[in-house]
Design a protein that fits this description.
Elements (H helix, E strand, L loop, with lengths): L3 H6 L25 E6 L8 E3 L5 E5 L4 E9 L5 E12 L5 E2 L1 E7 L2 E6 L4 E6 L10 E2 L4 E4 L1 H6 L12 E6 L5 E5 L4 E5 L6 E6 L3 E2 L8 E2 L1 E8 L4 E7 L8 E6 L5 E8 L2 E6 L5 E5 L3 E2 L4 E2 L4 E5 L6 E7 L2 E7 L2 E6 L4 E6 L1
Parallel strand pairs: 5-10
Antiparallel strand pairs: 1-30, 2-3, 3-4, 4-5, 5-6, 7-8, 8-9, 9-11, 12-13, 13-14, 14-15, 16-17, 18-19, 19-20, 20-21, 22-23, 23-26, 24-25, 26-27, 28-29, 29-30
C-alpha cells in the first residue's frame, strides 16, 4: 500500500470525545516509572504535533471530508483552541478522514503539510491567542510541491505517487520534507524555495512468504541532530514485525542504517541530550484483521530498544519531546497523551 495515510487509517475505530483539560500539576516531576496522563481530548483524527513557544502545542486535525481539516493550539493544561480552519480533507476507502499531516514550528511560524492538495502551507501564529478568531487556510501563503515530485523520475522504483507527510529544518535553515508515498526526502532551499530530491529510500526484500518479493520502506519521521538526519520508517505490506529501521542521512543525503529491529514505526523525535526516541504505531496481524489496538510504544533508540511506554497507546501517529516529557497523539482516540519519565 503506497498511500501512508490509508495505511495508518485502515481498521481504525474513531472515538470522538468532548473537550476537557487537566491541570498542569506534574511539570517538574521525573518519576522512576512513567507518569501517563491524558493531556487533551476531543480532537478529530489528529496526525501531527509540534511544540511552539510558551509550552503551547500545535496539532493537525482531520474532519469527515471536504474542507474541515484544521490546526489547533493546545494550551498548557490541555485546553484546545482552533487556530486555522478549512484545510481540504477526504474520506479514505475505509470511511475515515485524512488530509492534514505533520507540521513544524519556527520563530512564530507554522509550516503545515497537506496531503490532499500537495501543498506546504505557512502561517504566522505568533499573535494567536486563546479565543482568537481562527484563520481560513485559503488565506495562507503556500508552496505547491506535489507536481515537482510527480514529475521527478525516481527510476524503476518510482511510485508515481506523493504524500507530503513530515518535515524538519536542517543545515542552512533549509526545510527537509518526507514524502511517504514517493519514499523520498525533498529539500526546500531557505533562500529561493527551490526544490531538490535529497534522498530516496529503496525497497527491501520481503522476509515473509506473504506479499510481493520486495516491500516499500515508507519514511515518515525526520529529525536533524546537528550532524545528521535520522529517519523513521514503516515497512509496507505484510508489515513484518522487527523489520522497521531508522536510517541515517549525512549532509549529502547518503543513506545508511542507524538501527534495526523495530516494528511499524511512525515518528522519531529528539529528547534531552539529543537522545532519539521513536514511536511504534501498532502490530499487524492478518489473522486478527490488521493493525491491533493498544499496541503503540515509545522506544529509546540509542542502540537499544528500551521501551518507555507500551500497551497504553492506541494507534499513535506523532511524538513530540520536551526534555523528559513526551506528547503523543492517538489517531483512534482523538487524544494527546503526556508521558513523564
Amino acid at each position: 500500500m503506497k498511500n501512508f495515510s490509508l495505511l495508518l487509517l485502515m481498521a481504525l475505530v474513531m472515538t470522538i470525545t468532548s473537550c476537557h483539560y487537566l491541570d498542569d500539576i506534574f511539570d517538574e516531576v521525573e518519576p522512576t516509572k512513567p507518569l501517563v496522563q491524558t493531556y487533551a481530548t476531543g480532537l478529530s483524527a489528529p496526525i501531527g504535533l509540534v511544540m511552539g513557544d510558551q509550552n503551547r502545542l500545535w496539532v493537525s486535525e482531520n474532519g469527515p471530508g471536504a474542507f474541515d481539516g484544521q490546526v489547533s493550539m493546545i494550551m498548557p493544561g490541555g485546553m484546545v483552541y482552533p487556530a486555522i480552519v478549512g484545510f481540504p480533507t477526504y474520506i479514505n476507502p475505509e470511511g475515515l478522514p485524512g488530509g492534514v499531516n505533520h507540521l513544524a514550528y519556527k520563530n512564530g511560524m507554522l509550516y503545515i503539510l497537506s496531503e490532499v492538495d500537495g501543498r506546504l502551507y505557512m502561517a504566522d501564529v505568533s499573535k494567536f491567542r486563546p479565543g482568537s478568531t481562527p484563520v481560513q487556510a485559503s488565506e495562507l501563503a503556500y508552496h505547491e510541491i506535489r507536481s515537482f515530485i510527480l514529475d521527478y523520475d525516481f527510476g524503476p522504483l518510482d511510485t508515481n505517487e506523493s504524500n507530503l507527510y513530515n518535515l524538519t529544518f536542517g543545515p542552512g535553515g533549509d526545510l527537509f520534507i518526507v514524502d511517504a508515498a514517493a519514499n523520498a526526502i525533498i529539500r526546500r532551499d531557505a533562500g529561493d524555495a527551490s526544490l531538490s530530491v535529497f534522498a530516496f529510500i529503496p525497497d527491501i526484500p520481503n522476509p515473509t512468504p506473504v506479499g510481493p518479493p520486495t516491500i516499500d520502506v515508507v519514511p515518515n519521521g525526520i529529525v536533524w541532530d546537528g550532524e545528521r538526519f535520522l529517519i523513521s520508517t514503516l515497512i509496507g505490506f505484510p508489515f513484518p514485525a522487527g523489520e522497521s529501521r531508522i536510517y541515517e542521512l549525512d549532509h549529502d543525503g547518503n543513506i545508511s542504517v542507524y538501527q534495526e529491529g523495530f516494528t511499524s514505526l511512525v515518528d522519531i523525535a529528539l529528547g534531552h541530550d539529543q537522545l532519539p526516541m521513536v514511536l511504534q504505531f501498532s502490530e499487524f496481524s492478518l489473522a486478527n484483521g490488521g493493525f491491533q489496538p493498544m499496541q503503540g510504544k515509545v522506544i529509546i533508540a540509542n542502540g537499544t530498544t528500551q521501551t518507555i511506554l507500551k500497551d497504553k497507546l492506541n494507534m499513535p501517529t506523532s511524538l513530540e519531546l520536551d526534555g523528559r516529557k513526551a506528547y503523543v497523539t492517538s489517531l483512534a482516540d482523538g487524544t494527546v497523551t503526556r508521558i513523564i519519565w
